[in-house]
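Researcher: Predict the fold of ADP-ribosyl cyclase/cyclic ADP-ribose hydrolase.
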Amino acid sequence: MAELTQASSFVSSFESSNYEVFLSYKWEDTRNNFTSILHKALKDSGINVFPDGKKLWTGDAIGPAIERAIEGSKIWIPVFSCGYVDSQRCLWELVQIVQCHRSNGQLILPIFYHVDPSDVEHHTGSCFKKAFQEHEKKFNSDILKIWKDALELVRNLKREVLDETR
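Model: Structure tokens for ADP-ribosyl cyclase/cyclic ADP-ribose hydrolase follow.
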């Protein structure tokens, strides 16, 4: 019971807040390198960043809090890595980010971390092609279209591309 009270307190501590930045990324791909450094740099600069932690993504009750954090953020930074489109969670976050961008005009600052932006949009390259082949086995064409449309919009925004040379 104490764990439930702690979890409830943790969720309510960020549920109603507005954030300046929401980072969307594949935990396993970038958390222990680029994204953790970016997250820390933003926080150290006094920027209110949505709380980072793998425990946020477990359980069903946290979903609405994440949706509110996305809706309340002023800037979204999706960090596209090789595994980003493997993750349904990342894709649904991106869809919500794009919907909010279209209706409210908040800023999306995509970062392409060791991936080619055209691979993201066109679902090419080994990572993205394989991920969408797997998604096609599990999801109907309407869901795939929603995800692909979101990826296309973000790919065409002003962006930062980080590769082995940078």
